[in-house]
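Sorry, explain these tokens?

___
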Amino acid sequence: MMALVDGDLYLYRTLAATEDETDWGDDVWSLTSDLGAAKKNFDKLIKRYAEECGVDWFVLCFSDKENFRKALHPEYKSARKKIRKPVGYSYMIDWCRDNYRTVTMPTLEADDVMGIKSNSTTMIISDDKDMKTIPTKIYRPMSNEFLDITQQEADKNFLTQALTGDSTDGYKGLSGVGIKKAEAILGSRPHWGAVEDAYVKAGYTKEEALTQARLARILRSSDWDYDKEEVKLWTP
């Protein structure tokens, strides 16, 4: 079995933990990072996760610099522009590409890459809750959880996300709807019609509902055109 590892998430965490602030006095501060230590820590971390999963080999997945969701919604992740990457982040991505098997796909985030590449012979290693919208095996290191998400569970989680939105990523979903309200809307047989009806009743258009769903959708193999190397936008 092969592991698809959330390279974005674990490289960010490793580098953030390696940064060091120095007060030189007279209001002069500097920020440094020991990239040698970061390399060792990252290598130990990823290999430990792979061993805990019992996988034969692993691939690190990284986001492309371009993002197809911004064409759907210009405010997508706009708030994150104010959050700087840890020192040495770009350099370390290049280092990863030189030292590990890695994959990046045009206009896609690491989540999408893992979703598209996942199948019956893979396991995703990520703590990101969005990966629960993919029918796949998942290892969540922070909680030491091994999940096996069925197609039905993945579809329900996706529709729930389309309703609740994600303020961190800059799309709001249906105003006032949290997890509990989403469950009530979806009922015992979750389907797109229930989501669309909820949006329309709240004064939104069907097109607005679809846009929110497309922003929430972590891509699966069926959402990618392999010949054109481009996204096939999700359609109910």
Remarks:
- The first strand starts at residue 2 and ends at 6.
- The CA atoms of residues 83 and 122 lie 32 Å apart.
- The mean pLDDT is 95.
- The longest helix spans residues 35-53.
